[in-house]
Each structure stands twice: as C-alpha cells, then as structure tokens.
Amino acid sequence: MSGKFSKSSLKQQIAEEIKKMIFEGKLKQGEKITEQQVSQSLGVSRTSVREAVLLLEQEGLLISEAYKDTKVTTISQEEVLEILIPMRLQIETFALKKGLSTWREDTKTQFETILEGMRKATAYKDLSMFIELDIQLHGLIVQASGLENVIRIWESIVNRIRLHFLHQNSRSGTMEKWLQEHEELVTILVSNSSLEVALEALKSHIVDTNLPDVYLLD
C-alpha cells in the first residue's frame, strides 16, 4: 500500500487519506484512531502517521490529549450558531462586496459549472460530492475577491464548515431543497443584480439553509 505514497510529501498524503475517510463518513465524530491502526491500514510508518495527525490537529479535524486517545473532532450546534455562521457571514459578504464588480464571465461560468455538478450529485444522491461542490461554490465567492488575507481566513475554517455540512446534512436528507436554494443564489449572483440584492441573497442563503436543521447536530 505504501507504494502509492511519495516520500517527499508522505505526511501530507497520509493526512489526505485520513481527511477523506472523515469527509466520506467512514470515520465518525468522536471516533478513536490510533497510529498503529492507520500505519497498518496504509502500510506506512507510525512516525509518518504521527506527523500527519499533527497536521490534522492544526486543521481542527483531529484532537489529541497527552497520554490519551486521538479522536475525530466533533462539531456542535453551539459552534455553528455562535462561530461558523457569523464568521461565514462576515467573510463571504465582505468578499462579495469587494469582489462582485470585478467578476469576469469565466467566474460566472465557474458558478454555473459547480451548480451543474450539484444537480448531478442530487440526481445520484451523492451527498459527499454535493457537500464538496457546496464548499467549492462558497469558496469561489471568497477566492473571486482576490483578497489574500480573506482567503486565508476562509481556508482556516473551511474544514470545520465541511464537518458542519457533513454531520448536519447527513441527518436532514433534503438535497433537492438545498439544490433549489443554491440555484436561486447563483441566479442572482450571475445575473448582474445590484450589489445590495446580491448581498441580501447571500446573507439569507447562509442563514436559511442552516438554521432549520442545525438542531440535528445535538
């Protein structure tokens, strides 16, 4: 198994494998993982696994305590309501405010491409793909601003947002509704609406797609 990894970025590749298992739901919230378990599964050294675990701790996906277990982090209703949603509102609306007037046609095309992918994911009931495309869509709003500091802040919380989407959406099962909400948002974003209309649509979208189901996290 280790043959698929290159030595130059071994810890990053191991981290990506663990991350993939988390976002595909193969590793659950609060589930314990061990260096030995991952080492044997991937055919890599425990030292490399330890380095990968440190990376994932920095990204907020794993948590370890001295002389205790390493576990997949959990995400709570409180964190979503008091941290993630307010931060998303600030980051995404600021990025839209600064970037909308500079969007080119290729940016709008990217939104349409992501949306088409979401339609396919909905048709195939592929939740993990839908979530990844959802992240891409909102990430594009931030990336299209061209504001490096804002992009870095977004990147620092994006994995917590992924966990939020994964654990909330896997329990609510309303992909068709989410698709419709994203179609409505993208229509406004790419239709040369005024900045005020676009900002209000984004704010409503972030709140309205989450508040009805956030109670499912606890």
Based on the model shown, name its key terms.
mainly alpha, 218 residues, single chain, three-stranded antiparallel sheet, globular
Can you walk me through this structure?
This protein has 218 residues and is mostly helical. It has helices at residues 10-23, 35-42, 46-58, 77-99, 105-123, 127-143, 148-172, 175-190, 195-208, and strands at residues 32-33, 62-64, 70-72. The protein has a three-stranded antiparallel sheet with strand order 1-3-2. Strand 2 and strand 3 form a beta hairpin. The chain is globular. 24% of the residues are buried. The model has no long low-confidence stretch (mean pLDDT 91).
What is this structure's SSE topology?
Elements: H1 10-23, E1 32-33, H2 35-42, H3 46-58, E2 62-64, E3 70-72, H4 77-99, H5 105-123, H6 127-143, H7 148-172, H8 175-190, H9 195-208
Antiparallel strand pairs: 1-3, 2-3
Helix pairs in contact: 1-3, 2-3, 4-6, 4-7, 4-9, 5-6, 5-8, 6-7, 8-9
Task: Give a quick precis of the structure.
This protein has 218 residues and is mostly helical.
Strand content: under 5%
Q: How helical, in percent, are the residues?
A: 55-70%
Number of helices: 9
Distance N to C terminus: 38 Å
Oligomer: single chain
Write down the secondary-structure element order.
HEHHEEHHHHHH
Name the structural class.
mainly alpha
